Amino acid sequence: MTIQALIGCEEHLIHANDKAVSAAVAYVEQHLTIGRHKENGKSRVERTGNLIIAKYHHETARPTEVAAPDQHLYVHALLMNLTQPTDDSWVALSNEQIFKLLQMTDSIYQAELERNVRTLGYAPRHEKSHIELAHISREQIEFFSKRNAGITAELSARGTSRKGAPHALHQGITLAHRQAKTRELSRTELHRQWREVASAIEMQFDQVWEQTEIQPAQTFG
């Protein structure tokens, strides 16, 4: 989806992803938010249904040693350790339920994202724990995943794989490939480079509707 959104200049897909994130966070806020505070010397918890949330929109992966950052559309949702019970005070979060139900929250995000993508007229493809757009092949996606390719290659050189490697080894190699983010290239320059690469591997963004055999939605609500 990232490739179509950022290289294919499909702003509706960015909005679709933002709405899916908002739906998942809203579930956490409405159903899993519990405040914790002291009352007469005893700990007390109360379901509050409100959070302070900061969302940060990102469009690039980390660069590699030999290449500029690939495109990567994602959102960080930062939850402050504060919530407001019925007495209008501010208390700390009791976050056990939030962590316990992380998979459910992710399922809500994925389901909402798929609904939004279908509303826009795209055909989704399920890949492991996420969805992709059916008209963009795995090979094309991997071409724009240079950091992951470097990690996979190093694991392979050590006689293992992502699935088979011990956690410590996998984490160590991943961190070793974690280059600092850079602002040396403007968004315009990055987009130009991405389009050139997409053109070189003959990606056809203007033919998406014919490939999916679904007509695009005119609006996104």
What fraction, in percent, of the residue positions are helical? 40-55%
Number of DSSP helical runs: 9
Low-confidence stretches: 209-220
Number of strands: 7
Dominant shape = elongated
Q: State the major sheet.
A: 3 strands, antiparallel
Describe this structure in words.
The chain contains nine helices and seven strands, in the order ααβββββααββααααα. The protein has 221 residues and is α+β, with helices and mostly antiparallel strands. Strands 2-1-5 form a three-stranded antiparallel β-sheet, with no helix packed on it. Strands 3-4 form a two-stranded antiparallel sheet. It has a two-stranded antiparallel sheet with strand order 6-7. α2 runs antiparallel to α4. The radius of gyration is 21 Å and the shape is elongated. The C terminus is likely disordered.
SSE map:
Layout: H1 2-7, H2 11-32, E1 34-39, E2 42-47, E3 53-60, E4 71-79, E5 92-93, H3 96-100, H4 102-119, E6 124-127, E7 130-133, H5 138-143, H6 146-157, H7 167-176, H8 187-200, H9 208-212
Helix pairs in contact: 2-4
